[in-house]
Amino acid sequence: MPVRRFHSIEEMPSPPPLPPLAPGNMRLACELSMLAARLRPKRLPPGLYKHRSLEEAERLREFWEKARP
Fold it and tell me: Stretch 31-42: mean pLDDT, rounded?
């Protein structure tokens, strides 16, 4: 199989579209979801947090996001 080189991603041909309701579509979606979870797992402290306002909840979420490596 020959090696093909492209100068940019725009030059690469897109993969053929999958047929709707194909049996492999769900498997592919699950595999992509698992890959995304392995690449960037969400690390949130366990537990339930109650907030008095939406702003307070957003501040806590921002704190957690800044603390992530």
Answer: 88
